UniProtKB/TrEMBL annotation:
PANTHER family: CENTROMERE PROTEIN P. The gene is Cenpp. This is CENPP protein. It comes from the Eukaryota. Signal peptide: none annotated. Keywords: Coiled coil. Residues 6-40 form a coiled coil. It comes from Indicator maculatus (spotted honeyguide).
Length: 190
């Protein structure tokens, strides 16, 4: 009788271990899927971020209004991507801390501009005082495939120190455009 009870317990333990393994794999799959978003999901994240950032409380909007707004945002994003040649390939956002007047979110972006790829990781600190909302970018980390270009390394270091994403994207667009011209020129002479 003692051996049969042990066998029952061992079978139950094995069953639970298999279930834990299956649930762990499912969790990892979900986590992996959540870090890769399509363009539509990026647009929705941008819309959500903008409405959170601006503190808009427009109430309930009708479905046609939302569709029109989404189409407008898609057109704006398409224009900006063509104008700057910056293509975002993935985005993830995780809320790290949320209190009544303070929110900290961790963002990860990756994409490319012409033939240069980049990855950004930063925290967005959003503080609200009465009716004023202020945001600050902290812990900015930039990874670029720049080869051995010292100027790009210096630029990335300055960007990380200042936390200035707008300057980063402006400079990236300009640099990547000329980098692409130089690359094509050298290919032409090879």
């Amino acid at each position: 009788m003692d051996n049969s009870m042990c066998q029952v317990y061992e079978d139950e333990i094995q069953s639970l271990e298999e279930e834990i393994k299956l649930l762990t794999e499912q969790y990892e799959d979900i986590q992996q899927e959540s870090t890769f978003y399509s363009e539509e999901e990026i647009l929705m994240a941008i819309k959500s971020f903008q409405s959170d950032f601006q503190g808009e409380s427009k109430g309930h909007e009708s479905l046609p209004d939302l569709k029109a707004q989404l189409e407008s945002l898609e057109a704006d994003l398409s224009f900006l991507m063509k104008f700057t040649s910056i293509q975002f390939t993935s985005h993830s956002k995780k809320t790290v801390e949320r209190t009544r007047n303070r929110t900290v979110q961790k963002h990860r972006l990756s994409g490319n501009c012409y033939s240069l790829s980049f990855q950004l990781e930063f925290q967005l600190l959003e503080m609200q005082d009465k009716e004023k909302v202020s945001t600050v970018i902290t812990d900015l980390s930039v990874v670029m495939e720049s080869g051995e270009d010292v100027n790009v390394s210096k630029f990335v270091s300055r960007t990380e120190e200042r936390g200035d994403l707008l300057a980063f994207f402006r400079s990236l667009s300009s640099y990547a455009e000329w980098f692409e011209h130089r690359r094509r020129t050298f290919l032409h002479f090879k």
